[in-house]
């Protein structure tokens, strides 16, 4: 067995041991197909006030500019689908990915361990771990690595488990065996396009980020435009509509990562509890949570916006 195959098999076995759903590998290089798409998306202002999307255009498309002399992009998926959801059907809703401990911390630790075990096994390997916090087109790399296809809602989808998972990468200077993309299985389905409460999926495979409920409830720092009143389907942080209606997500299975389990009080809170939430309750329920990104003032703004629909 040659060293590339041996190292590839080792990395995939280690990823599985660390609890990742799957692992795919691509040759590091310029993303030719994505370049014009990203340019057009930015030109049409579909990133709204997410100014950071305009930065590091070249790095977004070429991992060798992020990690010098990198040879491989190792893409990993980690399931976050919960075994139970919020109890009160009338309560403002939180996107499932934010139920437990902030995924950035959980995944970063796993990636550091993975890189460390690779270095122990192979010798001197340089690389960096990325979890949604650097200019890496993670969905494009995951699709290129055969982990799924990018659906009409612009999420990565797999036939086996749908789309409720995080995507992360290790970019390393090690030659490996490379995977190939899988085919698109969206077919004629338009469930996500039809269900989007704010018509953010402007055409198949194109999401106008500036119309997305996740953008309004997390990224937008000013007041939410009045035109969208009554159109949020009770989402106060993020939105899962386009995933909830996707037929492939009927295959979603509950994760087995204890850190992603929510605090019991989060699931128990009623509509009234949320509408009367205090800074103290916010700090307790969302300790180490991704929801802290909105701060108490931001979440409260979102709740009041839903209340006055």
What keyword list fits this structure?
single chain, about 300 residues, alpha+beta, NADH Oxidase
Largest sheet: 4 strands, antiparallel
Amount of beta strand: 5-15%
Secondary structure: number of strands: 10
The neighbouring-strand order within the major sheet is 1-2-7-4
Low-confidence stretches: none
Report the C-alpha radius of gyration, rounded: 20 Å
Pathway: tRNA modification; tRNA-queuosine biosynthesis
Binding site for cob(II)alamin: 60, 132, 153, 156, 167, 214, 239-240
Binding site for tRNA: 221
Domain 4Fe-4S ferredoxin-type: 174-206
Report what the structure shows.
The chain has 309 residues and is α+β, with helices and mostly antiparallel strands. Helices cover 33% and strands 13% of the residues. It has a domain at 3-85 and 96-172: 3-Layer(aba) Sandwich (NADH Oxidase). It has 12 helices and 10 strands. A 4-stranded antiparallel β-sheet has the order 1-2-7-4, with helices on both faces. The longest helix is centred in the middle third of the chain and has 20 residues, at 103-122. The protein starts with a helix and ends with a helix.
Topology (SSEs and partners):
Blueprint (H helix, E strand, L loop, with lengths): L2 H15 L4 E6 L6 H10 L13 H5 L10 E8 L13 E2 L8 H20 L4 E4 L7 H7 L4 E2 L5 E2 L7 E8 L18 H5 L5 E3 L2 E2 L5 H7 L15 E3 L3 H4 L19 H5 L2 H5 L3 H7 L9 H13 L2
Helix pairs in contact: 1-4
């Amino acid at each position: 067995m040659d060293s590339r195959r041996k190292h590839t098999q080792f990395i995939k076995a280690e990823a599985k041991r660390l609890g990742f759903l799957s692992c795919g590998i691509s040759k590091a290089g310029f993303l030719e197909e994505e370049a014009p798409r990203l340019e057009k998306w930015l030109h049409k202002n579909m990133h709204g006030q997410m100014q950071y999307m305009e930065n590091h255009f070249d790095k977004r498309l070429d991992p060798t500019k992020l990690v010098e002399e990198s040879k491989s992009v190792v893409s990993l998926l980690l399931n976050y689908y919960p075994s139970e959801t919020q109890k009160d059907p009338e309560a403002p809703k939180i996107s499932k990915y934010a139920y437990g401990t902030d995924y950035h911390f959980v995944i970063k630790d796993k990636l550091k361990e993975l890189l460390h075990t690779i270095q122990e096994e192979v010798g001197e390997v340089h690389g960096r771990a990325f979890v949604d916090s650097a200019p890496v087109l993670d969905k494009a790399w995951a699709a290129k690595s055969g982990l799924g296809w990018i659906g009409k809602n612009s999420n990565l989808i797999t036939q086996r488990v749908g789309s409720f998972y995080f995507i992360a990468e290790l970019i390393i200077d090690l030659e490996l065996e490379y995977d190939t993309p899988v085919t698109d299985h969206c077919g004629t389905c338009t469930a996500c396009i039809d269900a989007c409460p704010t018509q953010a999926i402007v055409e198949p495979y194109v999401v106008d980020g500036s119309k997305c409920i996740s953008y309004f409830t997390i990224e937008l720092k000013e007041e939410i435009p009045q035109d969208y009143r009554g159109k949020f389907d009770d989402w106060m942080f993020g939105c899962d509509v386009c995933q909830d209606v996707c037929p492939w997500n009927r295959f979603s299975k509950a994760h087995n990562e204890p850190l992603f389990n929510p605090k019991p009080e989060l699931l128990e809170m009623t509509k009234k509890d949320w509408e009367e939430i205090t800074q103290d309750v916010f700090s307790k329920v969302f300790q180490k949570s991704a929801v802290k990104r909105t701060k108490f003032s931001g979440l409260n703004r979102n709740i009041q916006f839903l209340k006055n629909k």
